[in-house]
């Protein structure tokens, strides 16, 4: 059974503790759209020999997928070591790395794993919220993938990934370009000429992406606001938010930039982040019309 582009699987980070069906179900949907292979990665502590519980979480996740997704090829990597090194080492350029976000505490150990994985992974990192709070009053719940398309080098890859994700989900893309005001200024102080320029740049990126991507309806919006706030507002009620992070120096980038970090901390939906190594991943195949959990 084949995996993603180039035979690369969906890779899922497995933590200790409770079974994480929301994360595993999302990984299952991604694998079915991409070719059918899942690699579960469970990195545990440095005990030698391992404590009796060390492999339990990985084995329970493997058993869950064997029972709920017998059509998938599932493998388990369970060993002591650095979690990020094991996760990244299991990914290829055509993979997608799926991580759970249990409490949105990026200051926790799990949060540091997410930050480091975003920077180091050779593929997009999909962070799936395990528990969803109440929907804010007035939120319009709709089927859509929101793409944060900025003026940086990640913009084409972000939009291309959003198009593929939307094709797989059978939903449209909402491409958003956020123009931040000068530091300390109000959003009303963004010049109209800057908004017009941003509109032209967004339209150009969308036109180029649609030329090579799947046929997916795309709407566009240019807004003057703080990037994290604008993206979080538009992600409310959507299926997924796709963003890049702006730190390009692989030798010095230790964590996502402030916008990506703020979004990951408070996002109301799954967030796919393309870090500096995850932008050039091989295109992942998408079957139009399939839905994800």
UniProtKB/TrEMBL annotation:
<feature type="domain" description="UspA">
    <location>
        <begin position="143"/>
        <end position="273"/>
    </location>
</feature>
<comment type="similarity">
    <text>Belongs to the universal stress protein A family.</text>
</comment>
<dbReference type="Pfam" id="PF00582">
    <property type="entry name" value="Usp"/>
</dbReference>
<protein>
    <submittedName>
        <fullName>Universal stress protein</fullName>
    </submittedName>
</protein>
<dbReference type="InterPro" id="IPR014729">
    <property type="entry name" value="Rossmann-like_a/b/a_fold"/>
</dbReference>
<dbReference type="InterPro" id="IPR006016">
    <property type="entry name" value="UspA"/>
</dbReference>
<feature type="domain" description="UspA">
    <location>
        <begin position="9"/>
        <end position="129"/>
    </location>
</feature>
